[in-house]
Amino acid sequence: MASRDLLLKPLLLLISLGMSLFGVEMFLRSLDSVDVGTTSQYRLPHRVFGWALEPGASYINEMPERAVRVDYNSDGWRDIEHGGDRGDEGIFRIAVLGDSFMEAYSVPLEESFHRQLKRIRKPPKSSTSASVGTGRFRKLSFSKR
Known about the structure:
Elements: H1 2-31, E1 43-46, E2 50-53, E3 58-62, E4 67-71, E5 92-98, H2 100-103, H3 113-120, E6 125-131, H4 136-143
Parallel strand pairs: 5-6
Antiparallel strand pairs: 1-2, 3-4
């Protein structure tokens, strides 16, 4: 009985502490609304991934330090069109899989990592961005295409 009380009291303490912290977190989040920016307007529902970037969308991401033009290609990625070079033999291709940092909608496209990578590679080269703030399943399915 005494050993049961020794385990029960700390467990109840941890559960009540966790619930209290969760409550405080939810309260503080309700006080400050987070502006996710215009990027959320171009995310569409997707039956497999939950959401996807809108193919062909274009907008200006207004930030305090500068405004950045953001364009999504016909595949729904923040990248240029790659229509003609997909079947070309002899082109070394790099697919950059990443999160919203790799999507880089806060910098001009030419300053993004995958475009910088294309510039430093010796020809022939091609780099494709499949970067968006999504889960591992989406990146895995893209890598199998």
